[in-house]
C-alpha cells in the first residue's frame, strides 16, 4: 500500500475543487484562505490545501527503518483517525449552525400557499417577514447576471448568516465558456443584432407608443429606469447588455401592434400597403432579434431581471397575436425561480425600485400562468408556493430609492395609479381560475350557492373599479387610458358572468325548462344577468371601435375584445332561440343589438386587422338574419319535441357523445339543429380565442337558411 507521502496531491483548495472554479492555488496570507475563498466569504478554516496537510506530515523527522516498520501501521491509523475527527468536528459545527437557524424560524417564516389576493390590495404584508438567512441568498456576478441559492445549497447555507453575504459576487459565469450557445446556427454577432433595429427616430416613436399604450396595461417595467437605460442606449448602443437589448426588441415587437392601418410610421417601417402583413412581419422580426440577444447572452444558464422582463413581454405579445405560448411560459417561470422571484424581495435587502420590479414580474408571470393553465383545462394543479406580496398600487415616481425593508410605506391614492389596472386584472384572473376549477369539474353542475358567491365577488370588484376610477370625474374627465382600462375590466367581468351562469341555462334547456338542480327563479335570475352582460359587452365593443380617442387601443378590440363580443352575440342568439317567455318587443330589441354588432364586426373585418372579425362577421350576419331565432316561441308538449334536438358533437365539443354534425342535418330542421349546435358550445370553449374551431362555424354560414326551414 503506497504511503500518503507518495500520493499526488491536488493543487487547488478543497472549496474551489468542489465548486470546480478557478483557484489561485496559494494562500492570500500565511495560513489564510486563497483569494477566491476570501472573495466568496468562505471561512478560513474551510480553505484547506491537501498538499500542505500531507506535506506537513511528510516533514516529520526521519526515524530508523526498523522503528518505522514497527510503528508505521500505528501512525497511519492515528493520522487517519485525526483527519476523520477533524472532518467530524467541522460537520458538527455546520449542522449545529443550521439547526440554530431553523430553531429561530417562526411559523410565519415558512413559505405558504396563501394567495396574494388575501392582501388588502396595497401590497403590505400581513405577517412578519422571515430573515434573509432562512430563505437563501442572491448571488450576483460582475457581468450583471444573478442566481438565487436556497438555504439547502451547500455554500449558501454556510454564508447565509454571515455579513460577508451582503453584496457577494460569485462565479455565476463559471459555467460560461467561449463555446457557442448550443441551440444556435452560428456565432453571435452584435453588429447583426444592432442592424435589425429601426432608425433611431423610429425607435423613439415605438418606445413612446409602448409607454403610452401598453405599459399602463401591463406595467412590468419601471419607466424611469427603462428611460435612463434607453438614454444610454441612444448614445452608445454597442455597450448595452444583451439582456437589455432583448428587452428593447420585445418592447418594439409589442409597440408595432398598436399602429393602425393609416400610420405613417407603419408604412415607413413595413414598406407595404398591407398594414396587417407589415405588422406581422415587423413583430416577427423584432421577436427573432430579441431571442438572438437572449441566446447570445446564454440565457438558459445566465440571466438577470432584464432577461425575465424580456421573456414576460414576449409572452404577453404572443398571447395577443398568436395564441398560447405554454412551453415558453414554463421556461420563463423557471428563470424566475432561478432568480428567486418567488421569494419576497424584502428578504434580500434590495433597493425599493428593484424590489417592486421583482414583485411586478412575479405578479405578471403568475397572471399569465393562470390564464394559460385555465385555458388548457388546469393541467398544472400544483402551484408554486410563494409569499411574495402584490406590487404597490403606486406610480413609478412614488418609488424612492433606498432599501425596501427600511422604506417608509407609500400611501395609496384614491385615484388610479400606473399599477391599478394590472392589480385589478390580476384579481379577475384569479376569480376566473377558481370559477373554472370549481364549476367546470366533472363532478356535475355546481350549486347555485357557489354560483351566487362568485357573482357577488365579481360585482364587488366592479364596485371597487367605479370608486377608484370615477371618484373625481365630476371635476375632471377620466384620462383616455384609464377610460380604456375601465372598459376592458368591465368587459372581462361580463365575460365571467356569461361563463359563470351558462351551466344553469344549459341544464335548464336540456331538461326542457325544468330542472331539479336549480329553481325556476334561479334560472330566470341567471338568464337576466347573462342578457345584461351580453348587451354590455356589445356596447363596449362598439364604443372602443367608434371613439377616436381609443384608436391606439384597437389592437385589443381586434383580438380579445372582438372574441368577447362574439361570445355575447352568440349567447343572445342562443337565449332568443331557446326561451319561450320573452315578449316580442324584447326579442326585437335583442335582435337590433345583434344586428348593430354585425356592423361593427364587418367594419373591423374590412380593415384586414382582425382575423376574429373576419371569421365572426359572416356567422353573426347569418344568425341575425335567421328570423326564427328572434320570433316569439310557443311551448311544445314534451311528446312533440323533435328527435333532432339531441345534442350534436362537432369537433370542438371535445368528443362528447352525440350525433355527427353535417350541413344536411341543418337543412332538415335548421332551427333545432342550430339550437343543438349552440347547445354544444360549453362554457370552457369560450375561455380563449384559441379554442374556437372556425370550420364548425362555417357550417352555420354555408348550411343555415335565413328565413326558410325554421320548422
TrEMBL record:
UniProtKB keywords: Metal-binding, Nucleus
GO cellular component: nucleus
Domain of life: Eukaryota
Main location: nucleus
Protein's name in the database: Zn(2)-C6 fungal-type domain-containing protein
Domain (Zn(2)-C6 fungal-type) ranges: 12-49
A GO biological-process term: DNA-templated transcription
InterPro entries xrefs: Sec_Metabolite_Reg, XnlR_reg_dom, Zn2-C6_fun-type_DNA-bd_sf, Zn2Cys6_DnaBD
Keyword Acyltransferase: no
Biased segments, Low complexity type: 645-654
Compartments, record wording: Nucleus
GO MF annotation list: DNA binding; DNA-binding transcription factor activity, RNA polymerase II-specific; zinc ion binding
Region of interest: Disordered: 106-137, 640-666
Pfam families: Fungal_trans (PF04082), Zn_clus (PF00172)
PANTHER family listed in its UniProt record: UNCHARACTERIZED TRANSCRIPTIONAL REGULATORY PROTEIN, ZN(II)2CYS6 TRANSCRIPTION FACTOR (EUROFUNG)
Amino acid at each position: 500500500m503506497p504511503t500518503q507521502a507518495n500520493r499526488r496531491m491536488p493543487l487547488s483548495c478543497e472549496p474551489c475543487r468542489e465548486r470546480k472554479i478557478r483557484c489561485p492555488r496559494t494562500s492570500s496570507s500565511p495560513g489564510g484562505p486563497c483569494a477566491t475563498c476570501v472573495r466568496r466569504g468562505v471561512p478560513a478554516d474551510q480553505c484547506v490545501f491537501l498538499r500542505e496537510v500531507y506535506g506537513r506530515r511528510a516533514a516529520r523527522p526521519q526515524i530508523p527503518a526498523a522503528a518505522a516498520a514497527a510503528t508505521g501501521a500505528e501512525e497511519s491509523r492515528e493520522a487517519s483517525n485525526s483527519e476523520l475527527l477533524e472532518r467530524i468536528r467541522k460537520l458538527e459545527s455546520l449542522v449545529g449552525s443550521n439547526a440554530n437557524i431553523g430553531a429561530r424560524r417562526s411559523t410565519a417564516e415558512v413559505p405558504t400557499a396563501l394567495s396574494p389576493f388575501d392582501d388588502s390590495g396595497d401590497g403590505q404584508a400581513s405577517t412578519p417577514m422571515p430573515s434573509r438567512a432562512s430563505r437563501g441568498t442572491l448571488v450576483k456576478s460582475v457581468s450583471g447576471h444573478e442566481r438565487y441559492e436556497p438555504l439547502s445549497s451547500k455554500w449558501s447555507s454556510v454564508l447565509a448568516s454571515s455579513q460577508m453575504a451582503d453584496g457577494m459576487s460569485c462565479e455565476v459565469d463559471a459555467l460560461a465558456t467561449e463555446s457557442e450557445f448550443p441551440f444556435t446556427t452560428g456565432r453571435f454577432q452584435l453588429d447583426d443584432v444592432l442592424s435589425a433595429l429601426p432608425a433611431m427616430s423610429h425607435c423613439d416613436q415605438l418606445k413612446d407608443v409602448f409607454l403610452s399604450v401598453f405599459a399602463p396595461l401591463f406595467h412590468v417595467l419601471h419607466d424611469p429606469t427603462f428611460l435612463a437605460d434607453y438614454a444610454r442606449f441612444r448614445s452608445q448602443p454597442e455597450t448595452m447588455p444583451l439582456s437589455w437589448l432583448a428587452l428593447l426588441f420585445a418592447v418594439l415587437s409589442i409597440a408595432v401592434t398598436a399602429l393602425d392601418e393609416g400610420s405613417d410610421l407603419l408604412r415607413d417601417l413595413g414598406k407595404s400597403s398591407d398594414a396587417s402583413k407589415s405588422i406581422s412581419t415587423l413583430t416577427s422580426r423584432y421577436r427573432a432579434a430579441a431571442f438572438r440577444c437572449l441566446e447570445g447572452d446564454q440565457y438558459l444558464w445566465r440571466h438577470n431581471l432584464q432577461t425575465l422582463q424580456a421573456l414576460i413581454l414576449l409572452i404577453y405579445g404572443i398571447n395577443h397575436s398568436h395564441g398560447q405560448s405554454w412551453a415558453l411560459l414554463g421556461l420563463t417561470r423557471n428563470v424566475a425561480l432561478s432568480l428567486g422571484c418567488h421569494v419576497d424581495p424584502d428578504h434580500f435587502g434590495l433597493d425599493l425600485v428593484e424590489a417592486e420590479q421583482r414583485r411586478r414580474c412575479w405578479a405578471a408571470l403568475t397572471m399569465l400562468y393562470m390564464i394559460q393553465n385555465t385555458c388548457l383545462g388546469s393541467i398544472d394543479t400544483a402551484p408554486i408556493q410563494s409569499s411574495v406580496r402584490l406590487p404597490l398600487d403606486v406610480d413609478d415616481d412614488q418609488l424612492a430609492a433606498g432599501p425596501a425593508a427600511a422604506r417608509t410605506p407609500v400611501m395609496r391614492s384614491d385615484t388610479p395609479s400606473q399599477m391599478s389596472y394590472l392589480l385589478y386584472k390580476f384579481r379577475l384572473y384569479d376569480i376566473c381560475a377558481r370559477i373554472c376549477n370549481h364549476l367546470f369539474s366533472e363532478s356535475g353542475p355546481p350549486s347555485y350557492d357557489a354560483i351566487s358567491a362568485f357573482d357577488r365577488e365579481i360585482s364587488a370588484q366592479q364596485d371597487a373599479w367605479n370608486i377608484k376610477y370615477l371618484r373625481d370625474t365630476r371635476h375632471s374627465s377620466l384620462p383616455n387610458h384609464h377610460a380604456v382600462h375601465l372598459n376592458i375590466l368591465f368587459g372581462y367581468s361580463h365575460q365571467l358572468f356569461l361563463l359563470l351562469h351558462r351551466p344553469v341555462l344549459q341544464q335548464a334547456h336540456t331538461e326542457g325548462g325544468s330542472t331539479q338542480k336549480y329553481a325556476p327563479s334561479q334560472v330566470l335570475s341567471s338568464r337576466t344577468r347573462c342578457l345584461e352582460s351580453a348587451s354590455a359587452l356589445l356596447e363596449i365593443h362598439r364604443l372602443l371601435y367608434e371613439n377616436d380617442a381609443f384608436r391606439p387601443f384597437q389592437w385589443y378590440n381586434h383580438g380579445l375584445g372582438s372574441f368577447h363580443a362574439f361570445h355575447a352575440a352568440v349567447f343572445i342568439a342562443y337565449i332568443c332561440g331557446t326561451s319561450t317567455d320573452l315578449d316580442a318587443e324584447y326579442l326585437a330589441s335583442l335582435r337590433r343589438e345583434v344586428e348593430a354588432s354585425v356592423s361593427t364586426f364587418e367594419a373591423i373585418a374590412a380593415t384586414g386587422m382582425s382575423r376574429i372579425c373576419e371569421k365572426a362577421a359572416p356567422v353573426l350576419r347569418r344568425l341575425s338574419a335567421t328570423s326564427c331565432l328572434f320570433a316569439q316561441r310557443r311551448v311544445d308538449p314534451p311528446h312533440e319535441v323533435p328527435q333532432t334536438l339531441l345534442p350534436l358533437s362537432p369537433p370542438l365539443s371535445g368528443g362528447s357523445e352525440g350525433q355527427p354534425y353535417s350541413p344536411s342535418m341543418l337543412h332538415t330542421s335548421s332551427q333545432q339543429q342550430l339550437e343543438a349546435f349552440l347547445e354544444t358550445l360549453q362554457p370552457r370553449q369560450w375561455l380563449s380565442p384559441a379554442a374556437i374551431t372556425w370550420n364548425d362555424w362555417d357550417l352555420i354560414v354555408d348550411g343555415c337558411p335565413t328565413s326558410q326551414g325554421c320548422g
